Amino acid sequence: MYSGLLIILIPLVAGYLLPVRRPGILKAANYALTRMVYIILLFMGVSLAFVDNLTANLMVIVRITLICALCILVCNFLALRLFDRIVPSPAAHASGPLPSRLHMLLDSLKMCGVVIAGFLIGLTHWPVLQNATRAGEYALLLLLLLVGIQLRGSGMNLRQILFNRQGVIVAAIVLVSSLPAGILAALLLGLPVKTGLALSSGFGWYSLSGILMTNAFGPVIGNSAFLVDLLRELISMMLIPLLIRRYRSTALGLCGATSMDFTLPVLQRAGGSGIVPAAIVHGFIMSLLAPIMIAFFSA
């Protein structure tokens, strides 16, 4: 029953345990990881083109995306806002001008462009493209191995994680508040509860959640998961400057797994360098939990 969880954990743990310390190798692994994400998203788009009743299913994807994203954001926001009210954080001070929102938006939309390109290629229905799903599964194993190497290369150890109180607590709040969001979304959409819980467990890591969900539930749910987490990242990116001055933990928690990479520059410039350790710890924990939680609920 839990063979899917083992398939996720084995390459992830193997990559983390590899004693890779040379900067050149780590740089090459990070470069390969970026390219693998694009390759797998291309396979996702191809797989979507082979779905039966395609037009109707595209409307299903839009509906799932909007309802699920709304449930997750509202539940996370309410829980994090309550924490900020009970345990207020020190006032944040910007450490520099914010990066161009247009530039960050275009970076995220590139991912959508790759999925659309794969979808258009898949519409040709070349016989070889029927193997896209299997190819995506093999590429996923390599991706997880590279993710493990990247997490190890971030330099975080267990002591640093456990002793950063804000990062750990915010991660716990996001995890706990995402579960009722998944249940609520499942009820509103008429989906099995486990599917809703899996959809709410991507924590903003759209490049991974879409892949895992496609393998577990098919292209419709997989592409919905991708769009849910992409939408979450885009919204959190826009809200950071508005929230971080007064609601530091809320701004951090809404970023999810991206707080250690994509949204980290925005957090640092809007909230100062003091938020960086918590952001890295929070993103590290969310990145570690996302594949485990999705695989668990997909089992």
Can I get a quick summary?
It is built from 13 helices and no strands.
What does this structure look like?
By secondary structure, this protein is mainly α. It contains 13 helices and no strands. The protein has helices at 3-17, 23-49, 54-86, 101-122, 132-153, 158-162, 165-189, 193-199, 206-217, 219-243, 248-255, 264-271, 276-298. The termini are close together.
Structural class, judged by helices and strands?
Answer: mainly alpha
- List the secondary-structure elements in sequence, H or E: HHHHHHHHHHHHH
Please identify the oligomeric state: single chain
N-C termini distance: 6 Å
Strand content: under 5%
Give the fraction of residues assigned to helices.
over 70%
Net shape: globular
Largest sheet: none
Number of helices: 13
Number of strands: 0
Rg, Å, rounded:
19 Å
Stretches with pLDDT under 50, minimum 5 residues: none
Overall average residue pLDDT: 82
Could you outline the blueprint of secondary structure elements for this entry?
Blueprint: H1 3-17, H2 23-49, H3 54-86, H4 101-122, H5 132-153, H6 158-162, H7 165-189, H8 193-199, H9 206-217, H10 219-243, H11 248-255, H12 264-271, H13 276-298
Keywords:
single chain, 299 residues, mainly alpha, 13 helices, 78% helix, 0% strand
